[in-house]
Amino acid sequence: MVFIVVGTQWGDEGKGKIIDLLTDRADMIVRYQGGNNAGHTVVVDGEEIILHLIPSGILHSEKHCVIGSGVVINPEALQSEIEFLEKKGISVDGRFYISQNAHIITPYHIQLDVIKEEFLGKESIGTTKRGVGLAYTDKMARIGIRVVDLLEDKDELREKLSHSLFEKNCLLKNAYGQEEGFDPGRIEKDLLAYTDLIDKYVADTSVIINQAIDAGKTVLFEGAQGTLLDIDYGTYPYVTSSNPIAGGACVGAGVGPTKIDSVLGVTKAYTTRVGNGPFPTEMCQYHSEEVRIKGREYGATTGRPRRCGWLDIVAVRYAVRLNGLKALIITKLDVLNDLDKILVCTGYQYKGELITEFPQSQKILKECKPVYEELPGWQEEISHLKAYAQLPSKAKAYLERIKELLQIEIAIVSVGTERNQSIILDERLLP
Ligand code: IMP
Question: Is the CB of residue 291 below 6 angstroms from any atom belonging to ligand 1?
């Protein structure tokens, strides 16, 4: 079975825990886009583990994990993540592979990301400042450095770096007023320090993944970020620079669409977003603060407080369509335990008209007003519950309403951070 798991909102839906849970049923876990801008949080035996680059499936000793060609790799981040895992007694050797085609995030991408964000000030995207967007920019401009470049001819690498840095140094000098540019020799030295590491794990990952699929293994593709951060379909320009949507899995992993059996969407019981950009269902400060504290809504990568909002059905309906979702996985339902009423956005009002499909115009998205349905809160602890039938009737009513509005089944409801705080509603929808 081949499954793609994607986020249906602006990322941070709790995918880390869900992928970790589903990893039990998988043989191989593949990341297909993004970089160490992601942060997948997993709680194992009360200990919180955050992985930014390596699939969280690596925490399960017998599983194979792959970083596909659609990912951008910061070698320093990769090394420290491997060391972090090794310190925990988790060895990645023999079961971890990185694509030779994946692009490298270099020190100049990171520095430029920081400079650019600061330069733009209030107009900035609010990136994670990890150089991710800049590495993808070079990839598209065909001046990127790939994993394979670190392993082949050194003169060619130096040439590629000089070529790539020429424009950047002009930009640094003329736009940002910096006298000193990036030095290709220095960057080359920095990058070549990671050749042994890269050499150990590099592979033709498309071959490895397809062989696993053909051998009947269960392969799980994990999306980082979320649908609304997709470069093509998200709230552009306030998006990441890759395709987190399910379609991105085929491109980013080198697998044909006919090989995919199902797509599951992870939806938080409310909405959050980090960084700037329109957010129609953003809560008032009072509720936002309450949800942020209870849900520990702080960026796993940057520590920034996340903006919190009510569940936006218009946005999730869009994600259902774009990803061709077979089922939803609802996370963090327990965060809403204390609320006396819960709002669900069923549409947007714009210039007297009701909109139910997610607008492609950012102007509309900025100016529309959410139309809310009010549901009663259950005001009970639910984190210890193990079966759907045990949930308070008002919590069940909330879930049923989501299903009804979206016309989609719910496969799992997560009621806490631990692996075992997950209620499975329908086994048939899972790997
Ligand atoms: P970048 O991906 O660092 O370039 O940031 C672009 C936008 O995507 C910013 O608004 C970030 O806050 C957002 N972003 C990137 N990664 C994540 C994530 O893992 N969760 C939530 N937002 C993210």
Answer: no
